[in-house]
Amino acid sequence: MLQSTNLLPLFFFFVCWSCGTLNVVVSEPQTNLLYTACSPYYEFVISNFSIFSENLNATFRDLREQVKDQNKHFATSQVGDQNNPASSLFQCRDYLSIADCVACFDVAAVQIRNCSAGTHGARVVYDGCFLRYEVSTFFSETTSFNAVSCGNRSAGDQATEFTSATQKLLTNLQATTPTITGFYAASKTQVPNNGGTIYAFAQCIETITQSACLDCLNSGYSNMQTCLPNSDGRAYAAGCFMRYSTTSFFPDNQTIDTIPLVKQGRSSNNKGAIIGGVLGAVVVVLVVLALLVWIKRPKKPKSVPRDDIPGASKLKPPVTYNYRDLKLATKNFSVENKLGAGGFGTVYKGNLKNGKVVAIKKLTLRNSQKMEEEFESEVKLISNVHHRNLIRLLGCSSKGDQRILVYEYMKNTSLDRFLFGKRRGFLDWKQRFDIILGTARGLAYLHEEFHVRIIHRDIKTNNILLDDDLQPKIADFGLARLIPEDKSHLNTKFVGTLGYTAPEYAIHGQLSQKADVFSYGVVVLEIISGQRSEELKVHGEVEGEFLLQKAWKLYERGIHLELVDNTLDLNEDDAEEVKKVMEIGLLCTQAFADIRPTMSEVVVFLQNKALSENLKPTMPLLIQTN
Asked: How far apart are CA 58 and CA 53, in angstroms?
């Protein structure tokens, strides 16, 4: 009897639970984790992490209260003074109930705390929500990360019809979402010939502009093409989220018909074009009159400094070190402290007075006004670049004709030593893949995410350093160039390293981001093979082949794995990934710059399980060294 009495409350609980779950829609906060990342600890210095942590907790409480008590699907919060501020942003998909939204937040808040103590920022993306925090304000950012996640199930026999219907649905969503209050839209469509239903959703964070929302979704749509014709895919960035699936993931009453909205937008554009044409004619007349007045003014020769490039004026000056302190830190630049040397100077290990170990680069410069200006410009540029996969310039020093750069110290030195030197064979495939991906992310930041476009010009294995966790950091920006936003490339004298150099740059001096992409592709092949790009391989009486030649011939014959470093032990999954990465390397080294992918596209390719069948590399053009 006692046992029955004790079980009675449990029985009533079960009955209540059954009524609440079996007869009502089951709660689904969609907590499938898609992406998580922690900001590097060295990007910002938090003066008091305890206070920062308290402020962060306060923002999380505020976010949760806004969602729960004010029925919000989007919320931001900022707490703290200028020394230890915390900014947080949360968004859940608008088709979720408030209860599911809160549940997704609770899961995200636990996950995001997995970052180590001292981390000043982090972000997590789930199917159902997005949570991010930083020490700095970021609410208008859209591209600090950009990724895609594809399902592994094919759409079946109607792949062509499925792809076409999905593309049309996503195109309509990306066009209409920025025009809808709240920046979100869900829709569905039928695949012809009873091919089933496709469900899709798009959303932007509410703190960006309409045009920024459109740009973000355009990028997401482009990334999503790599998923088709698989049955589901997701594209996500700091500013937006897109998803499609053959399985319904939102209630039917949340859908809208996007076609009338698209037509309405086109109609508005036509009216706008007529009005714009009239206004444009007036503007042209005024511009012509203004030019006539300007032409008659006396002209003065004027040089255009690098700071005139849009965005360059935002750069902050670097920290200045005392020359005597650096001399002391390197024991008067002694041989025993020497780490290496290159065409632009010698690098020494330095121990500063505060105990910090740094790398100190003593530059070799010609004594001229132009070189002085270039030094100051490059230092100003590099000291403002902050990314986990780029070496951090801590500051500089000048005395007389001495010019010195102070960098963070990398104990594991450069990648070439792990591929061709004493530590050859140390890196397994996973470590090599992480280096390939991290290097791509660093270059994508330089090309597309920093507020001025930067071309490195000398990407090679000895300019990729490895930190304590064997994560890559691109170094040696001595040749870096800025490109104005209104130019696709620069015409300049070739400088760099043959064997890594794009043909259009080496032959014609045409410099663009695609020159870095080419060099990166060569580095990828070196990482896979453990061979230097310019090293001529001769087997018996067989004519020797350079690495790029060899890789292309093996790819053409479908025997990719013959390129693999013989120190690697690959399992079946690794072997498939190596094939994919080798093809990405060959896509990057195609002869024509226009058909090479951008670095942000490379990042997406690397994160996908397989390359689209439409992505087939074309033959590279070899630049041989003499």
From this structure: 9
In a 3-state reduction of DSSP, which class is residue 208?
A: coil
Q: What is the CATH number of domain 307-409?
A: 3.30.200.20
pLDDT, tens digit, 9 for 90 and up, residues 162-182: 999 999 999 999 999 999 989
Distance CA 596, CA 147 (A): 19
In the chain, CATH 1.10.510.10 covers: 413-626
**Any idea what the Cα angle at residue 153 is, between residues 147 and 156, rounded to 5°?**
125
Of 589, 551, 577, 575, the closest CA to residue 434 belongs to 577
d(CA 262, CA 268): 10
CA distance 396 to 407: 9
Distance CA 5, CA 9 (A): 8
Q: What is the pLDDT of residues 553-593, one digit of tens each?
A: 999 999 999 999 999 999 999 999 999 999 999 999 998 88
In the chain, list all ranges with CATH 3.30.430.20.
24-134, 153-263
Residue type at position 475? A
For helices 429-444 and 599-607, give the axis angle rounded to 10 degrees. Answer: 150
Tell me: the pLDDT tens digits for 488-527? Answer: 444 455 455 767 888 887 777 778 889 999 999 999 999 9
Q: pLDDT value at position 344? A: 63
| CATH class belonging to 153-263 | alpha beta
- Give the Cα separation of 243 and 116 in Å (integer): 31
Fold of 413-626: Transferase(Phosphotransferase); domain 1 (1.10.510)
Strand order from edge to edge, sheet including 74-79:
33-38, 121-126, 129-134, 86-92, 74-79
CATH code: domain 24-134 is 3.30.430.20
CA distance linking residue 321 with residue 396, whole number of Å:
6
CB-based contact 581:493 (threshold 8 Å): no
Reported as a single tens digit per residue, the pLDDT across 243-282 is 999 999 999 888 887 665 555 444 444 444 444 554 454 4
By the 8 A CB rule, do 448 and 143 touch?
Answer: yes
Contact by Cβ (8 Å): 64, 48:
no
Q: What is the pLDDT of residue 65?
A: 96
- The order of strands in the sheet holding 232-237 is 146-150, 232-237, 240-245, 197-204, 184-190
Active site amino acids? 458
